[in-house]
Amino acid sequence: MKIRSVFGATYAAIVIATATPAAAHGVGGVGETITPHFQQIIPNIPGKSLKALLVDYAPGGASVSHIHAKSAFIFGYVLSGEIESQVNDGPKRVYRAGESFYETPGSRHPVSRNASKTRPATLLAVFVVDSDEKELTTSIEQDSSSRSKK
Questions:
Q1: Domains identified in the chain, total number
Q2: Contact status, residue 55 vs residue 63, Cβ threshold 8 Å
Q3: What is the pLDDT averaged over residues 68-89?
Q4: What is the pLDDT, as a whole number, of residue 24?
Q5: pLDDT at 28
Q6: What integer pLDDT is reported at residue 27 of this predicted model?
Q7: pLDDT score recorded for residue 117
Q8: How far apart are alpha carbons 57 and 114 in whole angstroms?
Q9: If you average pLDDT over every residue of the chain, what do you get?
Q10: Tell me, what CATH number does 131's domain have?
């Protein structure tokens, strides 16, 4: 019986570990979980793909300031809660469930966070991006430090 319990516990741990989403592409904020949701090559636009990510923010959660792949056009849609966002030098704005925004290629995203300290929020981020693009997100700090090394 003990061996069966050990195998059962091990199996459960493996299932939980493989089902737990990770921060996408090595850039994660505090209280932020990024889960790949969908990916498909766009057949009538050679070299382009559609990639969708779910960004779940815990209460008070936030992404690090970042830029996206230079080829990426991004559509953000708030599924639940309220997300505070700023693109480039534009104004900070709070988007509520059902509202959306976009980011043009080469944009900076200095602010992306849950506007609530007490309730979670979820954002659907849809990218139209070069199909061979590996890194969708780079932290602004990481980007500036890699440029200074060149």
A1: 1
A2: yes
A3: 94
A4: 39
A5: 59
A6: 53
A7: 96
A8: 6
A9: 80
A10: 2.60.120.10
Look at the block and give the residue holding tokens 């779940």: 56
User: What are the backbone dihedrals phi and psi of residue 21, each rounded to the nearest 5 degrees, phi first?
Assistant: -70, 155
Burial class (CB in 10 A: 0-12, 13-18, 19+), 114: buried
The residue whose two tokens read 């319990």 is 5
Residue 121 is part of which domain span? 22-149
Three state DSSP letters for the chain: CHHHHHHHHHHHHHHHHHHCCCCHHHCCCEEEEEEEEEEEECCCCCCEEEEEEEEEEEEEEECCCEEECCCCEEEEEEEECEEEEECCCCCCEEEECCCEEEECCCCEECEEEECCCCCCEEEEEEEEEECCCCCCEEEHHHHHHHHHHC
C-alpha to C-alpha distance for 23 and 114, rounded to whole angstroms: 16
pLDDT per residue as tens digits for the range 112-143: 999 999 999 999 999 999 999 888 877 887 54
- Dist. CA 25–CA 76, nearest whole Å: 18
Bigger pLDDT: 31 vs 96: 96
